[in-house]
Amino acid sequence: MQRPTKEEFKQALLDRLIYSVGKDSSHAVPRDWCVALTLAIRDHIVDAWMDSTRKTYETGAKRVYYLSMEFLIGRLLADAMSNLGLTDVCREALDALGVDFEAAIASEPDAALGNGGLGRLAACFLDSMSTLGIPAMGYGIRYQHGLFRQRFADGWQIEQAENWLTMGHPWEFERLDSSYMVSFGGVADPDKAPQDRWQPAETVIASANDTPITGWTGRHVNTLRLWSAKAAGNFDLSRFNQGDYLRAAAEEVLAETITRVLYPDDSTEQGRQLRLSQEYFFTSASLQDLVRRYLQDHDDLRAMPNFVAIQLNDTHPAVAVPELMRLLTDEHGLPAEEAFRVTHECLSYTNHTLLPEALERWPLELFKKILPRHMQLIDFIDRQFMALPEISANGVNVHELTTVDYDNGGSVRMGNLAFIGSHRVNGVSALHTELMKQTVFKGLHSVYPERIVNLTNGVTPRRWLHNCNHPLRDLLNETIGDGWVADLGKIEALAQFADDGAFRTCFAAAKRKNKVYLANEILKRSGPAVSPDAVFDVHVKRIHEYKRQLLNALHTVAHYQAIKADPNADWLPVVKLFGGKAAPSYQIAKLIIKLINDIATVVNSDAEVGDRLKVVYMSDYNVSRAEVIIPAADLSEQISTAGMEASGTGNMKLALNGALTIGTLDGANIEIRDRVGHDNMFIFGLTAEEVAEKRRQGYDPRKIVEGNPRLKAALAAINNGTFSPDQPDRFAPLIRNLYEGDYFMNTVDFESYCSAQARAVDAYRDSALWWRAAVLNTAHVGWFSSDRTIREYDEKVWRSRSKQVA
User: How far is the C-alpha of 364 from the C-alpha of 128, rounded, in Å?
Assistant: First the structure.
């Protein structure tokens, strides 16, 4: 790609401002300049985008289709400019026009298309597939409001609608010609002619919107296709003219509800129905689209696995198994056995959880009501499965392994469906993969012992170091060159400078710049003044009991009490920084947020404690917030109950940016330890095996509390209203859970966690020791690049670069 000069780009920018945005430069506000800049950059992407698509068709390349409920892409503009090598010329052009470059960039809203690690992983994978030149399409939903915007009212989480699309999304192209009918409900009769087997009661239109995703240097561009739901019927003008305005628009409103919100509350029957409808809606539209693409150049659907690889990101698109079968049988005439073979060879499934409640189950009657034809195909799949010779040979209880569970009112087990219907099932860390074989998929693993493979997660170095951490990026480029951006393995060369005092000083200075910036952001958001010379102890992730924000809060209280007991001691200043959202119906998680905010209110206003301890909860944690917090972190909290975190990617991002991990041997922490070294982390707590054994043997958390004076004192302070004087019993449910069960082992691991925190403080006091470990963290985590992960997906699962043409 030929890069434009400053004058050429300046003119292109003005043209876009005038002719696309419709503004004169003298009246344009930062958002106008942001849109004009986005459109100008998009113009530079389109040629490569079309070339990439054309090449895929011309070469007959196998294409990867990545189906995910979430794509947490965040802001795209800075990444796109960087990938194209146009950041400097864009800045110079805007400077010449008297426009604040940073203000224009900051006015881009975060695309509210995800929640946490699942969606961010999908976004990293899109970046890597484009960088590596793997022909791919991401398929998801174009949520109007996304998850929710989080704010706090008196410390309580309040959910507000996220209006990221209010001013449009200039990256996307609306594809009105790519629309598909998606149906629900009605009746199904397998004995009728294929086209008549399903008589649905309701149909909506899935309309496509495409966003180009460019890789590093812009040589290859893939597509993120997101679906919007529209009414299939016409607007009821007669009702409108009669004054019945609500009923006239009812069909439009109901259809658009499907793509309005990410993860609607499923605590009600209506919420469960909407959520299942969402999953089927985007899965069906995506499969219809990819089958159409395939048939443009091929006439034999039986050969589709040679040209199509479909990755299911968790169980949300697991309905792809019966839906692809339905398309092949009912619409294209393949026998059911052949349709299942094609489906099985095309599909692969990524599992992201060992929590049984997170492996989706749908009530049988609800599933039949919404997808009656698919229920018939699932019954067929189960009959085929039960007839396998491996079932009797392994002596397994087949009824525990089938898709349909007829006990307790009946349910459809989407994890089992995805497993049986896929040719590969992957875990996302070495530990997670082994635990899959031993726990949630033990029986299915015995039937299909070769099906499960490990593909440890990774993160893109472009977004998570090069673009978000300029001080460290510049230092790395000056020291080892910039080859690490495209090949993160090359960052290993940094290790030779870990014992160089002058380099460590520069590394620490880069970190301090990021901490100063974050401290200013905290102040802007009405937080307390924090010192950049304090330890920034960062715990940012989705709020869930197994991620143990509560354990961190208990330590915070104990640390506060220790300072109060001996205020004249030599305390190292610490900033405890939290961020993350709780699901709207997850009351315990929301109570944990309230506890942390109440602790912050008391601690931050205590003059005797002063700067020695500050507690900050940054609201509305998202990609843009992460890009500010992660480069500034000193200590990375990865403290989930061992055996419960599948992988984590925050641990990788933070380590890459020179933060030291305090964590359990859970998820990818184990593999990070193997590369970074045990001495350069702060490991604590029970292992996954010890957790399992502890649960088998049973334990008494009350006895643990009684035997630990500082834990007992911390819990007493929470329970007696020290942090909630207006309502002393506010946190009684948390205390009760800890005393009566403590399933997530906060009490069990508390003392070990406190010891790890003390080791971290001692290490930070030794500047040479700390910064040597920080340098080695950055140097040794090159393996955790999403580029490596995607190469492994391609080698072990997709085989897009070694397809066997029929």
Answer: 39
